[in-house]
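Allow me, if you will, to draw on your knowledge of protein folds for a short while. I have a record of one protein: its chain in single-letter code and its fold written as discrete structure tokens. I should value your view on which stretches of the chain appear to form regular backbone elements. Thank you for your consideration; the sequence and its tokens are set out here:
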Amino acid sequence: MGNELPDGYNTMIDFYSLGVLLYEMLVGLPPFYDPNKMKMFNTILNKEPKFPSSMSIKTKDLLSKLLEKDPHKRLGNY
């Protein structure tokens, strides 16, 4: 009973959260950070994350797959 998630959520949110955490650890800011919270919420919903040019291609690939907005396409979906 304690493992139930709210309607509309499943364990795929854990993979997305892992992507956010890794991004923030590597870059120093969350992937969609904006000091204006409304802009930030809009960016989270509608835009792809930006990656520093110094980030390796493999790291960008991993983070892109974890931060995929469609949970059916996200890394970890089985």
About this structure: The radius of gyration is 13 Å. The chain has one domain: 12-66. DSSP finds three helices and no strands in the chain. Residues 12-66 form one domain.
